[in-house]
Each structure stands twice: as structure tokens, then as C-alpha cells.
Amino acid sequence: MGADCVYSIIGKKPFDLVIKNVKIVNVFTESIVEGDVAVTGGVIAYIGPIDFPYTANEEIDGAGRYAVPGFIDAHMHIESSMMAPARFAELVLACGTTTVAADPHEIANVCGAAGVRAMAEASANMPLHVLMMAPSTIPSAPGLERSGWSLGEKEMEELLDIPGVAGMGELMDFNAVAGGDERILGVVEAARRRGVILDGHVPALTGARLQAFRATGVDADHTDMSLPRAKEKLAAGFSIQIQHSFLSEDLIAYVDQFPLQDRIMLITDDVPFVELVEHGHLNANVRRAIALGLRPLRAIRYATINAAARLRLYDRGAVSPGYRADILLMKDLEKIEPDMVFSDGRLVAENGRCLVRMEKYKFPEEFYHSVHVLPLAAEDFALKAELPAGAAEALIHVLGCNEITTRTKNETRWIPVRNGQLDTAGLVKVGVIYRHGYGPEKAPGKEVSLGLLAGFPAFRGALATTYAHDSHNLTVYGTDEEDMARAANRLLEIGGGLCAVQDGEVLAEVPLPVAGVLTEGEADELQEQFGAFFRAVERLGLRHANPMMFLTLMTLAVSPEIKCTDIGLVDTLEKKFVPLVVEAR
Amino acid sequence: MGADCVYSIIGKKPFDLVIKNVKIVNVFTESIVEGDVAVTGGVIAYIGPIDFPYTANEEIDGAGRYAVPGFIDAHMHIESSMMAPARFAELVLACGTTTVAADPHEIANVCGAAGVRAMAEASANMPLHVLMMAPSTIPSAPGLERSGWSLGEKEMEELLDIPGVAGMGELMDFNAVAGGDERILGVVEAARRRGVILDGHVPALTGARLQAFRATGVDADHTDMSLPRAKEKLAAGFSIQIQHSFLSEDLIAYVDQFPLQDRIMLITDDVPFVELVEHGHLNANVRRAIALGLRPLRAIRYATINAAARLRLYDRGAVSPGYRADILLMKDLEKIEPDMVFSDGRLVAENGRCLVRMEKYKFPEEFYHSVHVLPLAAEDFALKAELPAGAAEALIHVLGCNEITTRTKNETRWIPVRNGQLDTAGLVKVGVIYRHGYGPEKAPGKEVSLGLLAGFPAFRGALATTYAHDSHNLTVYGTDEEDMARAANRLLEIGGGLCAVQDGEVLAEVPLPVAGVLTEGEADELQEQFGAFFRAVERLGLRHANPMMFLTLMTLAVSPEIKCTDIGLVDTLEKKFVPLVVEAR
């Protein structure tokens, strides 16, 4: 390819493409070069005014727009979009993302190594370049939840053998790492021996414990980026990967003056489908960083060449000779909305629409039968607490929720006992059913683990989801046991997804038939389904700033403070089970 | 290893080593942290004041010295030192160099792929970590000289298969690259397909020709770093590797404020043995950069973490948890003289002396028989120009030399003809004899290619060398043909090296029996030999600022302006042969 670039410059072959009249963003000098961009064989051959004789197979007028390197997302999860890679690619290419490092830990919790392999195969040979990362922490809270897989050293090695897998995905059980847990350290060592990229997830450690985590070789983090944490991580040699929610004026001001710029980058982590459609992808973070005061050329660098360096992709991240022709043309450097997106020198998106139709990948048949649960009845959702005869009230643990965050408070409260049963009026039940099947035959079960949520007094009906971090067990929220059973059974019928039920009627549903976490439908279709689903959520009276996050996170036993898994109620700070009923009197 | 670091921090295992009471240079923040450095399994586990209970197998008092990362040399040639890797390692470890990327293109010109393989084997498993680069341009001037090998695409692939080879060494025939020469482009493509590091050597290209060179994927240069050249290369995405001779105040001032700091580094390229002993290794460049105004912590970064990033060595370049414990302790940050050098956590040098004795590598037997030349007689060095009968004078090409540089002027001058022969009084003859053998049997020859040097009127005697860039043919300088034959024959006897002869007597010699370019002797011994040799050079009347450079570069057909190879006199700017005698009258 490089040879062909030389031949084009010396006039022995035409350039494949010349984009005339652009303002080229040079990420090395943080400056603008006016001129043209000439491409041969998918590689940039020349930038600047072409002051020598040449021919070109195609010439495009850049009309004075900026030519920016394609955005590179150094840490993200495709499954957050709930879209299969092909459809996801179409959406994000239109936003200017041309390379992503994807950690498929959601689907791996359901399908194990086969899930990673399928995502790698499904993501190969697209104009969106996908680097697959091997999920490292499955389940996220061993012993406190059950998922479809359990990953140790041997499994990590198996994942790293899959073509397209370039590194170890975020190591999430930071307390176990810093505490010297042999199993998790074995996983890291397996990856470290391969010399691959090692990603971390380390919100809470500082001091010696943070250094212990770093000493394992893991050298990137995308979690807590409050200023003191970001400073400490940078000083310890971490690459800091800043997601949208951590962008702040003081962080921007700090990183802007930091002497070693190349370990700072912008990433997306999780972008739910609705946000993706409304606000965009990595370009939305770049836009936000600029709005917070970062110089546009520096913000672009954080989402291009710096991410490329982190991912050890030496062939991209710059509009400069020798680099892949992944190029965005945009009118201004504040909105960060590409008019034209080139991948390997080919125009793949224009004015927010993808021009290329990606081939549909055929997932393994068993991925479409991933909800191994027997049909449920109302009584399966009944609380069967053993209370002393004659008790009038009981002290119970609840997930103390509010309408803003997904952080729960570990609260206890006294509730009445009527007819020997807990009276849960004013509370919302959550039932979590292990859905990955028992034994090698994946025999279905119907064991419901129940908890209670406080904070949604207006809720009435039921909401069910098979997308529930990270184990993706079948999770049902509700006030009416009949509705809860109906919602759960509907998901059994459609092979997974989300649905809303009230008074026995399915009000809305979002089918996610691939492993219960992905759809293969079109973005337009999904947008309609989500629209209907959110209207139904509102009608059910669940008021929350981010209902999707809320519904999918009440099962995640690694985030504070109390969660409900398929095994029981978990005090996630103490990493132990707590009983629903503490005492009765 | 990482796991053991964690165990040491949590008190489950002792640290292997704790260096107490040091000022730790943090290359990420460009700041100093006071405290301790704790090491386990050759990896840094913790830095800073150890404020938790711990045990250590060994504890050293750093006595308030600076703890600096071991220096990493991203571009160099071991053969410049004329020492075998084991002895070279002992010398440079004492200077604080703990990792080098070595391009063995000198020995490869003599021994081909076997030379690269031998250097890789000889350099394995030493406390000096050696990354081998595959030489890419052999011979350096195809068609204008003959060496012991000729490298094309197939040979590059062969080199890249050698264990320990990490990339393509400096691509030197930049004009051929920018001119679209298919053979050299095939070599680059072979390396590019492997995705390895691609080094360049591109002093003279600018504009579209520089971009053409860069478009091949080659992205580092260590040649001309005059300010405009350095600026253009940085803007084109090159890593700039600054050697001692290009360090200047204006370059330092420019790079200091450059926004993308990670592509700037200090390297040594060639450090002849005598300079190495007198001034040091990469530490001498760091010292010089600081003397020219660069902040010490930034200069250190250019010789540590930046070089590591270039070499894709993610496990070194910082005194920080997770990094290899390659650590220098030094009293100040101006002299850059390490008192103690640790490699992988082991003390390997102290007060300028290496404490470790490296095992001698057994080079293949044929490396000791690399001078395939028949014994020479005085008449072999006689000029046999065919002059017209009765000519009184002749116009000849000479290598116009001076006492300062190694750049020659392509001059012509009239000299007298006496008895039908050129009268070369006042000039010095240079005779170059192809020494790599003819045919698969490597049959010896004795064909002498002759040239004349102007600029050394006081010279009397003969100097011979088998170390002569880059083809390393047997090269003899002299005014007396008997002495020239004696000097040449002495090198045949000792298997190569350098020697000085006057009035039939060998005044001094430096044996280089390995491929005629390396010795396996001790540094002390070599220092004595060089001392004697330079005294002899002076006695012979060759006055030059750098006689070693001068003697070994008059054969290099890729540096300006006129040189003498084994085939003939070469106008190196026009890349063509020129006759010794232009005309006679």
C-alpha cells in the first residue's frame, strides 16, 4: 500500500481519491494546514497543496471544511446500544467513529467464549474497525451472582486466542486484585504473559492499593475521574479514558496543562441506544470537552491519535501520510458533526446517514434461545418470608432508590405484617430469575430471588428485562404479581428483551432476541420500540431520569450499596448477602 | 510477576528489594516524589514513602539520590563500539543504558542474515536488554559497491523471523524510496505487512518526497535535525531521534514547547569505542541536552518513556509500579552519571563499573575467517592508468579532504606524469579490496580499486582497516606501496581490524577478528590498542579531528561527495562512477 502511495506521488499511478480544498487538522502540531488530501490504496499519501502534476480516479471538493481523523474509541461496549455490530456500525460511522475497542462482556456473561467469538466474527471486515477485548471479570461478583459463564486463567487464554481479540478488557474486581485474590490475579497474569493491552476499572482505589492494582500491569482506567482521582491515576502511569459523565471544567483545565499528553483520551464506555440516536457517539464527548473549554484540536487528539497509541494501532489517528484514510469532513470544530465520513478512503457516511449496508452476521442458533426459564405464575413472585406466628411488623432491607441516580441506599424499615405475610404496599418488588440454565443441558428453572425497592410510590404494573448488568438474568420489577408473571412470560416468548405490562396487558416491548441483549433490527425500528417502551414506563409511574440505566443496574452487585441478584440481596460494599427480613415483632 | 507485587504490598511476601530514601523522577508528571522504591520479581511494586508494614529481602539506602528510569536507546549500532555485545553491555550498563534497539547492519554487510542471527543470540538474556532491528539497506549503495550480502524482500522476511528481531532498521536509500524503486519498496512492504517498527534515515528529503517516504509507513528518523528539518519531520508524524551531533539550543527550545512530546527522543546512533569510554553513552546526550537548556526531567523523558513508547516496550521507561525495575541512582541531574544501575531489580553496575560478567557468546566459526583476500604485493597498489604516450600531465578526480569533517569534495586537479605514470606526490592513495569472497566458495581475490585523497600532505606510511562503512571491504590508505601491502597483509594474518605501518614496520594494530568488525577483548585492552593506534596515526602524519570516522567513511557511497568503493570512484551525489583520470595532455 505504501508503495502505491509513492507511485501516485511520482505520477506512476493515479491517486484513488483527492479531497480538494480542506483545512487539515494536524494532530501532531495541533495546527491547521490548508490544502488537499490525496489517498491511494486506503492510505493517505500526501497532504497539503498538491503542487506537482498528478492524476486521480476521483476528486471531491472539500469546500473549505475541516479534515479530521476518524474518531477512535479506546474503551466501549457495543452491547450498550443493544444493536448487533452491523447495525451499530452504521449508526456510529455516521457520527464519525471509525475504530472502536469493544469489550463484549455483556454477551460473554450470557454465552461465554462463544459470545466473544461471535462478536469478533460479527465485527470483522466492516468499515467500522473493531478491536475486540477479552472480558476479564465474569461474573462481575463471583459467589454473589450467577451468570452464563465463569472466567478464570484458562478461559482468558482461550479468549486471547480468538482472532480479532487484542487485549484484556476492563478488570473490574479491583478489590479482589488489590486484596491479592489468586484467581483474578491468575487472569491478569495470563493476559500479561501475552503482552497485550490490559484495561482496568478502578473507581475506588487510592494509595498503595491503587499502586498494587497498577503493578499487575493494568494501565488504563475509565471510571472515577474526579480531579484528585484523575491526578493520582495519571501520576501512576495510567492512561485516563474520560467518559461523558466525568467531563468537567476542572478536569479539562488540568489535563490541558499536563506534560504527558498522550495518555489522555476521550471514550464512550456505555452509550445506550437512545442517547446514541439523540446525541451521537464519541463525537458528543469531543463536543462536550470543547464546550467545557478544551481547545478543539486538543480534544480531537484525545479522540484520535492518543486512542490509537493506547490501542497500539500505529496506522491511524492522523490525517497525515502513511495513515489509514479514516477521515471526517466537518464544517466547524464546535459541533463536531461530520458531513462526510471516509473509512480506508471510501465514503461511508454523509450528513448523518450511513451509505454502506453492512452484511448481517448469522449468530449461532443457540444465541436465540438464551432464556432458560420455565413459565412463571403469579405465586412465583410471592414473598414467602417465614415470620413468627403473631408478628405484627417486620424490619426489612430495601433498595433505597431515588429518581436521579442508580446508586441505591442500603436501608432498613419496619413494614406491617398482615395475615402472616409482609405488606409491601408502597414498595416495588424486584424478582431476579437465573436464566442461563442448569447443568450441561441448560435445564430451565424458575427460582425467583426477591427484593424490595423504595422510592417509587406511584409505580403500578410490571417491567421485565433480560438485559440486566452484568449477569443478564431475567429481572422483573412490579407491584402486581400477575403482571410480573405476564411480563416475564412475554420475554420467554420473544426470546428476551424488555417489556412493560399493566393490568395483564403488554403495553410495549423491545425484543432483544440475540442472547437476550441484542436486536438485529434496524435503528428506526428500535427507536420506535424504545419510544413506546418509555411511554409505557411513564404510564406505569416509574419516574427516573434514566429509566434504562435504572432498570438494568438494580442487579449489578459491584456498584453501591445494595442490589438484588439471582441468589439474594447483596450488600455490595461489604460483599455479603443480607436477609430480606432482619427481624419481626 | 504482577501478582507477586500485590502479595508484597499486602504483606503476604517480602519485597525482593527496597531502595529507601530516594528522589523518584516521575516521567509522567515531570516531577519528583520523595520516598522509597519497592521491587518484587524484577518489577516495581510501589513508589513513595512506605507507610504500611512490610518485609524486604534486601534494603538499600538511596541516600537522597535521584531514582531515574534506566536509559533506553531507540536507535543505535552495537558494532560502532567494535565490541562484542557482552563486552559492550558491560560498558553501557555502567553508563545507565539498560535497553537498546540495535541495528546490526555493519555485521550484516559482512555475514548476512547469519550476522543478524548471531548478534540477536549474542544479545539475548543479558541485563542490557537488546531489541534487534533487521537491517534494511544492504549494500547501502547497490551497484556502486559490493558487500557480503544483498538484501531484498525475501531476505527482510527471513530477518524478521529471527527471534529477538522487533522491526526494520533504518531505511537508508531514501532517494530510491521516494523515487519509487520497486526493490526497496518491496523490502519496506515486507516489514510493513508484519506490523513491526519501521525506522528511517532521511536526511535530505523535504516536501512531497518526504511525504512519499513517510507514506510507506516508515515513521522515525535520526538524521538531519537542523531546525527546519526537525519541524517538518515532527509535523509529518515522524518520531525524531536526536543524536549528540544534532543537539542545538534552537532545537531544544523548539522541542521543549512542542505539543506532542512523546515522539521526541534522544538516541546515540554511532558511539565509537573511544568516545564511549571517554564521554559515556546515552547519558552523554542527556547531559548535553540539559546543558543546552532542556529541563532535566524532560531530557530524561526523551531517553526513557518516550523511547519505550517508540519501541512498543510498555513495561519500561518509568520508575513507577508495574514497570521493570531498571533504575539508576544518581547524585545530580546535570552530570547524569549513575552511581548505581539496577536491571530488573538487580544491581548490575556501581560507580561506573559493571558488576556482572556477561557470558561470552560463541560466534560461528566462519565469522573468524571473513577476510577473503589473497596476500597483496606492493605492485597491487600501483596505479595502472593508461595514459597516451608522451603525456606530461593528467587531470584526475581526487577526494578533497580536510582535517575537520568526513565530507569529501569532488575535486579535479592536474598532476604530473613521469615515465608514463601518474606522479601522486603530495596525495594519499586509497585502495579498496573486495573482501567477501567470490562465489559460493568465497574464493579470495586481490583486485584493488584505487583512488587518491588530497588534504594530507604530511602523511607517510600506510593505514589499513576492514571496518569501512558500510560494506567493510579491506581498505588501505598510504603513500608507500610496500607499506600498504604490509598493512593489508597484516590484517589478513589477524583476521581483520585496523593497523598502522611505516617503513615496513607494524606500529600498532587493533584486531577485530569477528567479521573484521568486532573484538571479543576487554574494554581495557581495546583502550590500550586504540591509544597505540592513534599515536601511530599521528606519527604517520594523518591529522584529523576524528581519525576513526575519517578512515572508516571514505568508502561510504551514500554520503557526499566522492568516495572510493571496491568497484571504483563514486560521485555519490549523482550516484555514478567517475574515472580516476579524466584526461591527459
Describe the structure.
Two copies of one chain form a homodimer. Chain A has 585 residues and is an alpha/beta fold. Chain A is built from 17 helices and 30 strands. In chain A, helix 3 packs across helix 4, helix 5 packs parallel to helix 7 (182-194) and helix 12 (282-291) runs antiparallel to helix 13. Chain A is elongated and about 95 Å long. The N and C termini of chain A lie far apart (79 Å). At the A-B interface, helix 1, strand 3, helix 7 and helix 8 of A face helix 1, strand 3, helix 7 and helix 8 of B.
Q: Quick one: how many beta strands of chain A? A: 30
Task: Give the biggest beta sheet of chain A.
Answer: 10 strands, mixed
Helix content of chain A: 25-40%
Point out poorly predicted stretches of chain A: none
Oligomer: homodimer
Alpha-carbon Rg of chain A, integer: 25 Å
Which pair of protein chains has the largest interface, and what are the residue counts?
A-B, 65 and 66 residues
Helix run count of chain A: 17
Distance between the termini of chain A: 79 Å
**Averaged pLDDT of chain A, please?**
96
- Estimate the global geometry of chain A from the Cα principal axes: elongated
Secondary-structure-derived class of chain A: alpha/beta
Strand content of chain A: 25-35%
Secondary-structure topology with pairs:
The structure is a homodimer of 585-residue chains.
Chain A lengths: L1 H8 L7 E10 L4 E10 L2 E6 L10 E3 L4 E4 L1 E6 L8 H11 L1 E6 L2 H7 L1 H10 L6 E6 L18 H8 L4 E7 L2 H5 L3 H13 L2 E4 L6 H9 L4 E2 L5 H9 L3 E4 L6 H8 L7 E3 L6 H7 L2 H10 L4 H7 L2 H6 L16 E4 L7 E6 L2 E5 L2 E2 L38 E8 L8 E10 L2 E2 L5 E6 L14 E7 L7 E4 L8 E5 L2 H14 L2 E6 L2 E7 L11 H18 L6 H7 L8 E3 L4 E3 L4 E3 L2 E4 L1
Parallel strand pairs in A: 1-4, 1-5, 6-7, 7-8, 8-9, 9-10, 11-12, 12-13, 18-22
Antiparallel strand pairs in A: 1-2, 2-3, 5-14, 14-15, 15-16, 16-17, 18-19, 18-30, 19-20, 21-22, 21-24, 23-24, 23-25, 25-26, 27-28, 28-29
Helix pairs in contact in A: 3-4, 5-7, 12-13
